[in-house]
Design brief:
Number of domains: 2
Shape: globular
CATH superfamily of the largest domain: Probable inorganic polyphosphate/atp-NAD kinase, domain 2
Structural class: alpha/beta
Largest sheet: 11 strands, mixed
Number of helices: 5
């Protein structure tokens, strides 16, 4: 089998862990490649590099890091339909798994096709600006103020039905995967991974009665950002683009999925209990 490994800013103890994982993969007769991004902080002259243009032959890619690294891996893969195994050596880790201590079992399971493949939906932005060559996001697409403390004014429609005008610091359009990310920190609800929905969550709205709204993922969202004299940002996961003046965007579910490898015993609610301390008494 052929496997690629992607990582960002791998230093200290993480280098030792990664070296041991690579040694294990080679012991199990894997052909191992590392990304150009990973090679910036992890060098091994015996391992070949891969780029986005030559990954179609891979059986899967290991995202070695945290959720940010996994989002970076998703960006590089795009529509290529390659499986991703997220190995968490970061902090929170909702998308990647704390499996590096049982890595050998996970690899054995992959070799024996003993795992679950979860298809994650994405959202896409239209129209595609000439500076945007990847118009999709796994977590969320957000419109956020940039050069002023003043709020921005966003008219929002769902399937051409007007919802309201948001006076706020911005607006987040989130997938179920992204519901545990930026949207959650802005007061949005958590969606289970198999929910067929999208979330619209305002960022610090002027009208305090405005809250997140859940809509079907078959819906088409239209955002009209009213003309103003300041720049604003449109962000797709970790990638941001600057716009100015009145703009109109369409956001909808992407026509492709991302395939994440999960252990068969993965439990989403256990992850919530562990990562968010649900049900634990943490009072002083």
């Amino acid at each position: 089998m052929i496997v690629g490994i992607n990582g960002i800013n791998i230093r200290g103890e993480k280098k030792k862990i990664l070296s041991s994982l690579i040694a294990l993969l080679k012991e199990k007769k894997f052909k191992v490649y590392i990304s150009e991004e990973l090679s910036k902080t992890f060098t091994d002259s015996k391992i070949k590099l891969y780029s986005e243009n030559n990954i179609s032959k891979f059986d899967f890619i290991i995202s070695f890091g945290g959720d940010g690294t996994l989002l970076n891996t998703v960006t590089s893969i795009g529509r290529k339909n390659i499986k991703i195994l997220g190995v968490n050596v970061g902090k929170l880790g909702f998308l990647s798994f704390d499996v590096y201590d049982v890595f050998e079992k996970i690899i054995d399971d992959i070799q024996n096709n003993n795992y679950t493949l979860e298809k994650k939906s994405l959202v896409s932005l239209l129209p595609v600006n000439e500076n945007i060559n990847k118009n999709f996001a796994l977590n969320e697409i957000s419109v956020v103020k940039k050069d002023s403390s003043s709020m921005i004014k966003i008219h929002c429609y769902v399937d051409n039905q007007f919802i309201c005008t948001y006076w706020s610091d911005g607006l987040i359009i989130s997938t179920p995967t992204g519901s545990t990310g930026y949207s959650l920190s802005c007061g949005g609800p958590i969606l289970t991974p198999k929910a067929k929905n999208l979330l619209i969550t305002p960022i610090s709205p002027h009208n305090l009665s405005l809250r997140s709204i859940i809509i079907p993922d078959s819906a088409k969202i239209k955002l009209i950002i009213e003309k103003q004299k300041y720049n604003f940002l449109v962000s797709m996961d970790s990638r941001s683009y600057t716009f100015r003046g009145e703009q109109e965007f369409i956001i909808k579910k992407s026509n492709f999925n991302i395939n994440l490898i999960q252990p068969n015993n993965f439990d989403f609610f256990e992850t919530l209990r562990k990562k968010l301390n649900w049900g634990f008494d943490i009072r002083n």
